[in-house]
Amino acid sequence: FFLLPAVFVKSATNLSTIPENTSIPEVAFIGRSNIGKSSLINGLVNRNALVKTSSKPGHTQMMNFFKIGDRLSLVDMPGYGWKSRDEWGGMILDYLQHRKNLRRIYILIDPSHGIKDSDSQIMKLLDESGLSYQVVLTKTDKLSKTKYSIAKSEVEAQLVKDAICCYPLVLGVSSRTKDGLDELRAAIIKAGQL
Ligand code: GTP
Ligand code: MG
Fold first, then answer.
1. Does residue 86 have a pLDDT over 80?
2. Interface predicted TM-score (ipTM) over 0.90
């Protein structure tokens, strides 16, 4: 499925400029700046530069819509922890709360740093809005297997305590080594009922 051609659809800064095609399932990727959202979309669709990435945080400034064939829409979001939360919240919460074809939100977290306050704040907002989300740990290539597994357990323990609408399975990916991408693809196919 992920071998179907992936294309850029459009960029948007508010609800009135997002693509209107709401008949195909959509998944969105959110997370702190520099966490690897844009790289992950490239990894998922097996392209090096469909989405622009950067080592400088705050690179992605708009909501960028991509689609795979005419079957699935993927949305790359600007990172939070860079723009002020109000600014981020205004544009993105509006989208998250109103998008009818949005099947799941993937919230990306760096296992080397764990869940930050800004992540908890966003998860709380998602919980309050009853929006289903799933945690994806990124850049797993940077940690040894042991350190990764400790970090993952810590994240899971915190989610069980705090998160309400969080899908219980925590995934781990590396866009660099491609580890975990197949599991994430399978999760997306399931979430989108594709
Ligand atoms: P913003 O658009 O600023 O919110 O950032 P982003 O979340 O889209 O991050 P992006 O994909 O641009 O990646 C940020 C940096 O992390 C880049 O220098 C990437 O090369 C690096 N990076 C992304 N994924 C991985 C990974 O799996 N492993 C490693 N080691 N580095 C990664
Ligand atoms: Mg980005």
1. no
2. yes
